[in-house]
Design a protein that fits this description.
mainly alpha
Length: 567
């Protein structure tokens, strides 16, 4: 069944069927509120909006950040941030103004929301949730470049979309004119940057403080207490951010990233494993609950005539157009920004196994490689072949000939097409619409529209993901071990911030920090890097501590490249 219908779709079906039977016991004209059975049925058809934001969203966002593979995320950080920040804002505006034009033209069967409502709706519906697509990517082991563009964008996009939604929702008022909204948007841009930056810093500081607590207060002999305190990081930073008028969602996202980076090395092995399972389970239950509630609510709203199908179809078109104007211009602009051209696969002067080291214009060294991929079961090339040996090669880089770093950065046309196709709507959008401002009495209509869009994208787009992979000829069956090994060996993370963190931050917050922990993004046997680090940091380490750190490093390398935190 999972080969035909994604898990989210199956949960939705269960909710719809259950909601249909429950709705049989609910009468809109019931005057007797003392009937317990009917009250229970009505309650099941609609959860409180506070439950969504305070109980269900934090575990989902935290788990996404916690399982975001740091080195792969940072490798593709530029396009991910462009898609998440600029792309989400562009998508919001395109959806809002397109629907505003359509409604003013009278093509929405009399439903005419205000511009501020449409901006708020555009923000929430721009939040993507490609969990079904990522599950297919995971099973097919697609090109890691595509996987982390989709995963990374969805993680950041959720946070940006929620901040945009909360900001635009404040403008939904009877007294807002177009001029006031324009000035409000300009003011919002400044507040947005300050709010996002403050939330980011708070999230990272929360992770660092938790790491320092577990470093200086050794709880490894009492794993139950250690685990109990550790899992509090999934909620405490969120609540603290809300108290400080910051974005709890952005804070909890970066708390998850910081916790994985700084706190995990201070945990006992059992707590590490149990916490990982707990975070996955909490996120899975939360997301399943949201989809289940969505399915339950479909039956309740469908009988009230709230599904305006003309507006729904225009909204779907607006989402597709907004997604296209988000993805394609940004991909083109990013490819143009790459300073060196990618060697052609058909260039006769290019050896498909040649790799060499080159310098960017900024002076940073990187590895240039050609378009050879890491696919399992491919026929191996005989290195002793006379034809091959006659071509120029750099012997010092001979061990890094299976990963094309330039190809891994340029966004190919097929990758951009799949990025556009992967813009499913899901739990975050539906959670937002539950708190949609009802100033003009249009909350139910927007809720019904969001439900329909989630159902369409999950069933249609999520259900045909594998088909699109075949149509677009996306690379699948990637050998994870080969890809990780060659990536870490060929292109480790470098830079001022990375070195500053390794030399000053990481040793201060991590117990028994050594080269195996600090240089997490480089291979264990990199003697040159170890020597370089010893020039900056002096420490003493026992043999048992060294074995523990090496074991942690090996475990990290064995983690799946396609782990996006699913249960």
């Amino acid at each position: 069944m999972s080969m035909i219908l994604p898990e989210a779709g199956m949960v939705l079906l269960v909710g719809i069927v259950a909601g249909f039977f429950l709705s049989l016991f609910v009468d809109d004209n019931i005057e007797n509120d003392d009937d317990a059975a009917e009250n229970v049925a009505e309650s099941l058809l609609s959860f409180s909006a506070k439950i969504f934001f305070l109980a269900l969203l934090p575990p989902i966002i935290f788990n996404s950040g916690y399982h975001l593979r740091r080195e792969m995320f940072l490798r593709h950080l530029t396009p991910i941030c462009l898609l998440a920040f600029i792309g989400t804002f562009v998508s919001t505006l395109v959806i809002a103004f397109l629907l505003y034009w359509v409604s003013n033209a009278g093509w929405t069967d009399g439903f005419e929301p205000t511009l501020t409502e449409l901006l708020t709706f555009g923000a929430l519906i721009s939040a993507t949730d490609p969990v079904s697509t990522l599950a297919v990517f995971q099973s097919k082991r697609v090109d890691p470049h595509l996987f982390y563009l989709v995963f990374g964008e969805s993680v950041m996009n959720d946070a940006v979309g929620l901040v945009l939604f909360n900001a635009f929702a404040k403008f939904v008022s009877h007294h807002n004119t177009a001029g006031k909204v324009t000035l409000g948007i300009l003011e919002f841009c400044v507040i947005f940057i300050m709010n996002f930056a403050g939330s980011l810093v708070l999230g990272i500081i929360s992770g660092i403080l938790a790491a320092m607590l577990l470093k200086y207060v050794d709880m490894r002999q009492n794993t139950l207490l250690e685990l109990t305190l550790y899992i509090m990081i999934m909620y405490v930073p969120f609540l603290l951010a809300e108290i400080l008028q910051l974005s709890g969602i952005v804070t909890i996202l970066f708390s998850g990233i910081a916790a994985r980076r700084y706190v995990v090395p201070n945990l006992s092995e059992s707590t590490d494993e149990h916490a990982d399972v707990f975070f996955r389970l909490a996120a899975h239950i939360a997301e399943t609950s949201i989809f289940l509630e969505l399915g339950l609510s479909v039956a309740g709203l469908s009988g009230r005539g709230l599904f305006d199908w003309a507006f729904i179809m225009w909204s779907l078109l607006a989402c597709l157009v907004g997604r296209a104007l988000n993805v394609y211009p940004i991909c083109v602009a990013y490819n143009v920004s790459l300073r060196k051209p990618v060697p052609s696969m058909h260039d006769e002067t290019t050896d498909p196994t040649t790799s060499y080291q080159a310098d960017d214009d900024d002076g940073h060294s990187h590895v240039e490689m050609t378009d050879q991929t890491c696919i399992k079961d491919d026929a191996s090339t005989d290195s002793s072949s006379p034809e091959k040996s006659s071509r120029p090669q750099r012997p010092e880089m001979a061990a890094t000939m299976t990963l094309d770093s330039r190809k891994d950065q340029k966004i190919q046309t097929s990758t951009a097409n799949m990025l556009w196709f992967s813009g499913l709507r899901g739990a975050v959008a539906y959670a937002c619409v539950k708190t949609f401002p009802d100033t003009f009495g249009h909350q139910k209509e927007f809720m019904a529209t969001t439900m329909a869009l989630v159902l369409i994208t999950v069933f249609v787009f999520g259900g045909t993901t594998e088909l699109m992979l075949n149509v677009l000829k996306i690379q699948v069956n990637v050998d994870e071990d080969s890809y990780i090994e060659n990536y870490l060996r060929a292109d480790p993370l470098t830079g001022f911030i990375h070195n500053l963190e390794n030399v000053y931050v990481y040793p201060c917050v991590v117990r028994h920090s050594d080269m195996a922990d600090v240089q997490q993004d480089e291979p264990i046997d990199d003697d040159e890097s170890v020597h370089s680090f010893h020039e900056h940091v002096d420490f003493e380490m026992t043999e048992s501590q060294h074995e523990t750190n090496v074991a942690r490093r090996s475990k990290k390398l064995r983690e799946s490249l396609y782990d996006f935190g699913s249960a």
